[in-house]
């Protein structure tokens, strides 16, 4: 898999700036080694994350002096890295790291050099770095699992194109270290609107620069090695208690609806039942639609590449074939695809592939009889909708026609046992779940948030 570095540009379409970025597969490598291609599709799906941090020295911070930069400083790190690329494509550039250290010193953080233990993966090195310095971590959609959901330093997902719960962390930051940052996931205009943040860029490729993203320092190097070496340069730890309070606030907000027994089911309830029946290293593959936003924000992930999300170009129909690839690569893990009814119907023929290969994967279908995300955007921007409703087949009968097992959920209480039975099947299965998306709940009040720290 190769990545083509593209220039960053803003194009005014309907009054909004649209950021374009893409990746390109090497077709010759695909033909030469199809098995390796499957591995690449699953393991090299780019993972993005950013780390919001409170690190410093001197007196212990108090909540009311967060703006006093002389006694503490804040760091936000963005990262977007591929796990399978973590074993090394070049040594970190020492001069750039020294420059990064100098900039860190200028922010009042002592950074004597020390040895750092070897960690094989970039996410492992990030976890070590964050824990060593008390740095809270927030990730973009494609980076779920880079920091375990149950780690006290994990501040969960960002990526909604609105002022979100974690925006107050950006507001307090005066230094941003961007690790493999891909602007297509979370454009810099959302976290650096005043263009005043000091930025250090670390990635395999040079920065895609625009007026909101102009790094003072670039380290073009192996991501894992760069984090490891930077960890050896930085010393000091701050009490992350203010960000623990932010984490508890976020968790409370996202947990609402998880125990709702109403029917059709709420997305939070479906995802809670699913998470309860999956192991920490089991794999969930999300298709594209409103359910993707709920998965990105509320579905707990504990390890890298265990929640695979098509973001950026966001291709509908992605989940089922990607789940097939994931099961081929990891036959020892449970693999669940989550689709909307529209996305599932775009690639439902791949159910034949899963049956022919006898792959025990589960495809959970969020059924609402329409392209809900498009409908939501039409209503929001136009005040009306057009061409977004459609009829569905009998998904249980469709599964049987392919030779798979089909289930239909008719109550909130029935969902858990059905999921358990589907995961125990020796072959592929479909779970048809009627859903009430509650779209306004995703973004209600985000623009009027009061920072809890």
Structural summary, described in words:
- The protein has two domains: 11-248, TPP-binding domain (Rossmann fold), CATH 3.40.50.1220; 257-443, Thiamin diphosphate (ThDP)-binding fold, Pyr/PP domains (Rossmann fold, 3-Layer(aba) Sandwich), CATH 3.40.50.970.
- With 453 residues, it is an alpha/beta fold.
- A hairpin with a 2-residue loop joins strand 1 and strand 2.
- The chain is built from 17 helices and 15 strands.
- The model is unreliable at 1-93 and 103-120 (pLDDT under 50).
- The protein has a seven-stranded mixed sheet with strand order 6-5-3-4-7-8-9.
- It has helices at 27-32, 34-43, 94-106, 122-133, 167-172, 188-191, 223-233, 241-255, 267-276, 290-298, 319-329, 341-346, 350-356, 372-382, 395-402, 412-423, 439-443, and strands at residues 11-13, 16-18, 47-55, 73-81, 137-140, 154-158, 175-179, 198-203, 217-220, 283-286, 307-309, 335-340, 361-367, 405-408, 429-434.
